[in-house]
Amino acid sequence: MARAVGHNTEIERLKTLLFQSEEARLDTLEADVAFLQRYLGDADRLEAATADILVAALERAEVNRPRDLANAIAPSVVSAIRSEIANSRDMMVEALYPITGRMVSAAVANAFKQLVAFLEQRLNTLTSMELWIGRVKSLVTGRPISEFVLANSNPPNVRRLLLIERGAGRLIAEWTQEGTHDERADLLSAMVAAILEFSVQALAGEGNLQKLDFGGREIMLSASPRFILAAECTGLLRPADEARINALFLDEIESIDHGTDSNAAKLASLAAAIESDPRPGKKTSRNGKVILLTLLAVAAALFVWLATGFVTRTMLEHRTNAALQQLAQEQPLLASFPLQLSFDHGNRSVTVSGVEPSSLDPAPVVNALARAAAPYQVVNRMGMVPGLEQSATLRTDLASMQNALQRLQASSEEMRAAAAAAAESKDQQYASLNKQYVDLQARLQASIAEARSAIVSEAESRHQQYAGLQAIADSPAQRLGRFLATTAIFFGKGDEFVDVGEAERQIGQLAALLSGNDLRIRIVGYADESGSEQSNKVLAGKRAEAVAQRLKALGIEPARLFVVSRSAAMPISDRMDAGGSANRRVAFENVFQTEPAQ
Hints:
Blueprint: H1 2-18, H2 20-39, H3 43-64, H4 66-87, H5 89-125, H6 128-141, H7 145-151, E1 157-165, E2 171-176, H8 185-203, E3 211-213, E4 217-223, E5 227-234, H9 239-257, H10 264-275, H11 285-330, H12 332-336, E6 339-344, E7 349-357, H13 362-373, E8 377-385, H14 391-473, H15 476-486, E9 488-490, H16 500-514, E10 521-525, H17 533-553, E11 561-565, E12 585-590
């Protein structure tokens, strides 16, 4: 019996020696099977495990192979978007319709604001040379100077070109200005394809979407049944530029449809063709300076000529008047019968008018004035005062003149009667025209009143929208968020403030922001790395509690204050000195909406 027991023991030992490795593998397999049973035991566990594996795989692919991930998912995303658009078209229209008007109004207002800002910046940055050239052109052509500013603006700048497969949204070729690949190009391609397909379904043949505006960046679109060509441009696009870009796009799309391969080099040549300006070359700054200097020289010469002519004429008038005064002093009769001088600088002549006695010879007077007024010609318009021997002749002449005057008066009466008849006819015509003018003025006033009422209504609407936006931007939560993001209270050793006055001021501001509302905050205490972790945690908690006690003293409910100690976590300074470190602080954070009270 003892021999049998010993024999069995030896057999067991032999089995152990022979099957030791297999037994270990069986134990390992048993443990693995038990682990899989726990991990994939039922449908819920299998679904959870598969979801975790897919999420982890997608995260790794997004980091390591983003382009392959985008190419694989983009067709599914585009198809899902198209299906959702097709199935929920009415819901999308109902959701987008109320904000369409506001979007259009905001876009128009923003466009006008950007245009005014661009014109103002352009006018301010113009050099004096360009400004004067623009003014001269404006005076010559009668067009506003802003047109010349827009004409001289920079041509469009192409930042990126994308060739996209229509329908699937797959990126075929890409060109960027920097020459590097953008990881978001695949997402942008899918978005552009989805938007274009949505616009085709929404417009239903009424038009094609040709441009997307992203606030300073515009994406020009051109599509064929198979491909979409998109160009991201910056700068001011004039209608001529848009027409030229569309023509180049159509040529490129046509060549691609005919089987021509498109790559980055082909897109680069297309970008160069878009940026090239076909208009005649602008004048260089040197030519502009030459033109400006020429204009200044002409203006200076004109000014000198005008000044010289003015001085010459003034001296001639002064010299001639002085000669006449000297003649009046030499001949007393001229003082009794004064003469007047009239200068005609256009005809270069001087007219002498007035009366003089018949006993005075006018020749010496005219000769003296001619010498003084040279090279002007002296014209004699002086009358003679007759003596007694000429009175009878003058009376006879006066009688004949009276008879002629009576005949003229009779003719004048006849002409006055004819003029009165003509005036009556003109008065009737004037009354008709005046009636038409009054009717036209009334209609014009009515149109002006309607336009003024529309403008006032629009201004009130804009004011209400602005007031609503301003109320949202200045809400207590927004003000509190800005304060929490920029404020921290710093401590010295222990729980003593570095600057007591500044700390009290900041705590008072925080209490004012928390009053009158139910907002909650988290008070986080920090310490530096000078002590042990446990002592730092206790010290940081004391600092946070000190700030909380002061807020409670200012009337803030304790339930709205969450005190947290984070020890030496999140350092903001590398300095470690005896005077104090920026890491010894109390900061503030917003509390989550559903976070339970402490």
